[in-house]
């Protein structure tokens, strides 16, 4: 079973204070890049893996999805998701993504925002999503970028000439990482870009697009504190197609 | 015109001392991974971009290629390539890859080993290779991994707890890098994995496989000094298919 950290009261309280938790997609830095990877939504049956508070599920419904099913392991996240959702095309189900089964050919679109790096078995998830999609369907997801996630605790260092740099260790050593993020002992799984793309292709997907998120020039003018984001990407976004 | 560093006598002398220059593919750490990405060779017309001393061109001929044309900018590299090649199916041509034109549909296989990071215009090269391939053809290449190449001068640093880490800066700021590698002022171009894969897809390629080179367990037993290679990949290998 996947680690159940989002129902830890201290973690939940801390996570609920994040800008993206309070203010939704408009406060989610990588959202414009994610949205740009999405195919047309209208009329599609969508699945949202790791839906959390349901922001993305609701956005899909607002943009014409015929139905949206959001899955999450956290009862506390889903409780708020249900409370904040009026649209009857959206439903939520509590499930462990690590063992989730989805009905074959039940969706034209599967999305997942910042959830799949919690899963130990990426190949199982790739196969599950592929089977859930109809031919012609699309899969768009984001995870922590492996450059960011390789080292359990992100760390900035100074180079010999005093420049600020991001420390990378263990990029090619995949597997479990235990990090202190909001709460102590948060478990996630590091895998390389090659492993993700090769696994998705082995599952039958065609690669469509990759986005290693970086702020735009306009965003950098408004958010000078985002300049460090140019040193290393924090988010990896992937779009795939089931032929 | 691409920088012409390989005909700089000091650079050429230094490069000629590299294990891969002296001993060929058997001394090229990423060669087993590169070979694993190659399709069957027999009967194929092959093009080798940035062929250098011709090791890969000759290997393709030895493995049954119908013809191999190796292109390189360096007269000094090609002089040795010609001298060391007996097989009449291999020929060499001096050309600047930055402005190279290739006959349409003239090859079933295009390869390039550690050359394309010297090119400013990756999109032009992707389009050139795509046009040169017949439908069903393959393109396999290696470049410096962008994690390694982001920072002009590779640098190891110590983290707060004294661990050895690789310093990454400017991953998301693409473009020209001037580095001191063998000689001073070697010009290369940093681009992200996303830019490379998205550019190749825009040119019409289908993604086949990615390899972010790391030593195998067996190699690590023989070469304990390669353990640092697990911290950050130095080589990126990409395989693509022209549908």
Q: Overview of this structure, please?
A:
- Two copies of one chain form a homodimer.
- The first copy, chain A, has helices at residues 9-16, 19-23, 31-37, 55-62, 75-83, 122-132, 146-149, 193-202, 217-222; strands at residues 45-49, 67-72, 90-94, 107-113, 133-144, 156-158, 164-168, 175-181, 183-190, 206-212, 235-241.
- The first copy, chain A, is α/β, with parallel strands linked by helices.
- Chain A has one domain (5-241): Rossmann fold, CATH 3.40.50.
- In chain A, the strands form three sheets. In chain A, strands 3-2-1-4-5-11-10 form a seven-stranded mixed sheet, sandwiched between helices.
- In chain A, strand 6 and strand 7 (164-168) form a beta hairpin.
- The first copy, chain A, is globular.
- The two termini of chain A are 31 Å apart.
- The interface between A and B is large, with 37 and 37 residues.
Task: Name its key features.
243 residues; alpha/beta; 11 strands
Which superfamily, in CATH terms, is the homologous superfamily of chain A?
Vaccinia Virus protein VP39
Tell how many strands the DSSP assignment of chain A holds. Answer: 11
Helix proportion of chain A: 25-40%
The number of distinct helices of chain A, counting runs of at least 4 residues, comes to 9
Oligomer: homodimer
- Span between N and C termini of chain A? 31 Å
Q: Walk across the major sheet of chain A and give the strand order.
A: 3-2-1-4-5-11-10
What is the structural class of chain A? Answer: alpha/beta
Count up the domains of chain A.
1
Low-confidence stretches of chain A: none
Largest sheet of chain A: 7 strands, mixed
- On the 0 to 100 scale, the average pLDDT of chain A is 96
What fraction of the residues of chain A are assigned to beta strands by DSSP?
Answer: 25-35%
The chain pair with the largest interface is: A-B, 37 and 37 residues
CATH topology of chain A: Rossmann fold
Name of the top-level CATH class of chain A: Alpha Beta
Provide the CATH architecture of chain A: 3-Layer(aba) Sandwich
Radius of gyration of chain A: 18 Å
